[in-house]
Fold each of these.
Amino acid sequence: MVSICLVYSSMFLLFSISLFLISLYFMILDYSMMVEFELLSINYTSIEMMFLLDWMSLLFMSFVLFISSMVVYYSMEYMGGDMNINRFILLVSMFVLSMMMMIISPNLISILIGWDGLGLVSYCLVIYYQNEKSSNAGMITALTNRIGDVALLLAIVWMMNYSSWNFLLYLEYMKNDFSMSLISILVTIAAMTKSAQIPFSSWLPAAMAAPTPVSSLVHSSTLVTAGVYLLIRFNLCMSYSLMMFLLLIGSMTMFMAGLGANFEFDLKKIIALSTLSQLGLMMSILSLGEITLAFYHLLTHALFKATLFMCAGNMIHSMNNCQDIRYMGNLVIQLPLTCTIFNVSNLSLCGLPFLSGFYSKDLVLEFMSMSYMNLFIYIVFYISTGLTVSYTLRLIYYTILGNFNFYSLNLLEESNYVMLKSMLVLVISVCFGGSLLMWVMMKTPYFICLTNLMKFMTLIVIVIGAILGYETSKFSLNYSIKSLNKLNYSLFFSSMWNMPVLSTYMVNYYPLFWSKFLFKSLDQGWLEYIGSQNLYNNLKSSSMFMQFLFNNNLKVYLMMLVFMLIVLILMFV
């Protein structure tokens, strides 16, 4: 058990360091490489396997492998009591390989292999703990992602107009072509399902049924970021109207997730909604045309989000699998190192100066302030940032500063040294990763020219959000849970604007209701009466008649002879 975790962790880490160094080399030389070989040729359509190696794909792969190595090492202790840990590690490895396939593919067919691999393995990981809740969560995850898979399949069909699926060769030159416009719309729908944008958001918090190491991997650098990465690659062919639509969807997702997290009590779901908020931010900045900035925020977000989930996993593990933040409190006494790492990651998420999240979030907001955007987008961006700080401080208040409401008899101590080691390695990258990436990635610094008030707007919003989060936490602790739940808006916001109901119950209810009606009235009703049952009755009556004849053949023969004799006598007399 220990050996397989160590082997995979060491292998992933070694590959990660190697790919990072190669990506630096590619970045310095502004070098990219395409490796292509033909698999099959049918008429004029050739099926080719193609790999694109440039600084972006190599850097992303190195980050995915780095986080995966820490997650596998972390799983050695977190999943230590599991009987099927080898299967778990192999599933995680398949998940990482699917992501690798997706990252280095500039070909829609090979992208679909990685894309479907992510969907299939994510289903297997979500239902890893085999119970009804996991089954429901896995089903909604798989079915929502199938919408994106179908959109990608349709994009493959339309790409056949260009006699090849290597989309990088056509994106810029065929931008105004109808087929390419349709392909860009389909790819955007696929990316929206994978990155859980409105109206496909409900699967992301549901996927928290998976083990915590899986959540750490999924929500940082693999499954949910696949959609953002795909749009980064397809950015050249997207029309202005499509990008404005994506900006609206992304900003609304960011606002909705930030608002929902302020009313949630499940520790993992709060962090999941935080991921959703950051994905909305990535989509929004991507739709403003800033590919490098969106990619930069994607990488910095991956670092602190993986650390957050690991800390949450350690807390849940120590508290006998309790995930409700209302039971936690004053954990800084019992779990000081975990709480320190948790705080650093949370402050990085808020955008506190000189942590990794600050470099990307502050730059994103300042770039958006400089762009020629309307007041609505400007306000939504800043309110969403304030809400991020609000739910973060609320989380800190409940877990670290509040009263301890768990069992009186407990044993909370930091004896999980393997988990702590992996968290410490990641928190170092959270502290220094943002500035390091900025020095490496941004060859030309962004020129930001704003007034003093607008320059300090980000910090003002952070402070306002912190005050709001602290005050709402005190308010909700002073009132009983029952009286708080009586507030309708609390339930409405915590259920993500009723999206799980709309996207699952509303979609499923009427088809299931009509199928039951048709089954009762047609399959087991008129069709049964007129069709199979009627046929059965006819066959039965005719066969019984024949059987009667066969069973009484002598009597029937003699009677027919008598009748015949009577007829003959009557005719000749």
Amino acid sequence: MNLLSKQMDVITVIAIVLMAISISILDFNNLQWSNNEKSYIGLLIVIIIIFSKYLINIYSKKQ
């Protein structure tokens, strides 16, 4: 279980980097999908990663 914990820490760092990149390329002057689809997809992936990490932590505590 310790290996899974270390892998999840690496995944969290990757998610934080992806979130920073997605926010930095976001066009705040025009928030339409056509201008920011890469940013929105990146942020959606970050949300999915964080939610899956949360679910894995809950599941691992039950065992």
Amino acid sequence: MSTLVLSASSLLSFAIEPDPDPLTVSTAAQPVTGRLDITVGPGNSGPAFCKSVKVRIPIGAGAAQLTENRTALTSAVTGATGWTARPGYADGTWQVFEFTTDRPVNVTDRAATLVISQIEVNKTAGSADIEIIEETSPTNGSFTAKTTAADVQKFPAEFAFRNFRPAKIMVANGERAVLRWDGSTGATYTMYWGRSSQDVTSVREWSTPEPLTEPTGFMLQASVTTGGQTLVHTLTTVVMVERPDLDTGKLDVWGRADFHGDISLMEIAPARPFHEIAPGGPAYEFTAAASGFITVHGRAILSPRWEATASVRSGEIFAEAYMRYDGTTNRLSAGATATCPIVKGTRVRLSFSHVAGVTDGAARFWWIPLGNAQSPVA
């Protein structure tokens, strides 16, 4: 995978990708020839103008050098027009390649890929620091040189780490994922996912400790220590989840929403009496400070015959409970309860009136919150 590098003073960023990935050192029996693809992009400060980029390759046989054969190196530009790859030249223990533009290029996205190829990797594992020198300006004037250092890792010849993949690209909601990879011995392997990590050095097939309920990314790092240096190579993959759980702060639904299972509300407070209105009392009006439901119902009745209506209106939504007691059944009639959904910010009106003018009894209004919403009274 590519490594993104930039320095505090640079205006550009550089994504460096070796091929093969990772690079391993050469042996007498098996020489390794590789290449570096260096993709130019904007840095942390945003778009910038670029006139040229130089890439300096360290030459020698040690861990800090990349190759002993400077004359074999070649250069090219891919993915863009208006760039020229000039022949390389020696500068002491460096081989320098210059990439120039026909005119200053405004780098707003990936601008070009600078290629150094025919790299005959030397035989000493370690980190070789290459240098990238950009000639840039934020304003298309007063161009200055800025240097970024990047390390190119050369792993031992026996190191291998590849084919990191899930057994199933998509799992069912609540199913564990199985991940597999190919890796040589002598390295330490660590799995990262979410906020968790686990040493997986002893296995090449691993099952997630918990079932997955949402798409999950996994990063597997292999590290090996050689010559006092620790080299790290990283591979990533993603496992999708069918019908995943969603955790969102805001959701706007503009069309129909179908629910095919139970609806569970988090942190639901118990329903509690919201207001009790005596007959003849004034209506209550307020702006709802929270969303939920209001249910209306009548209290116990003393009169031998009794009729009353309790109603709640939230904006354009209206619910009404008609209550009647005939003096013989000792209970309220069917339909004596009604529920109205309340939307935060709407105007709500609660009222209670006797149809037959009886003076006792009252209506109760219960507040049923959505989530942990508090009373909707403003």
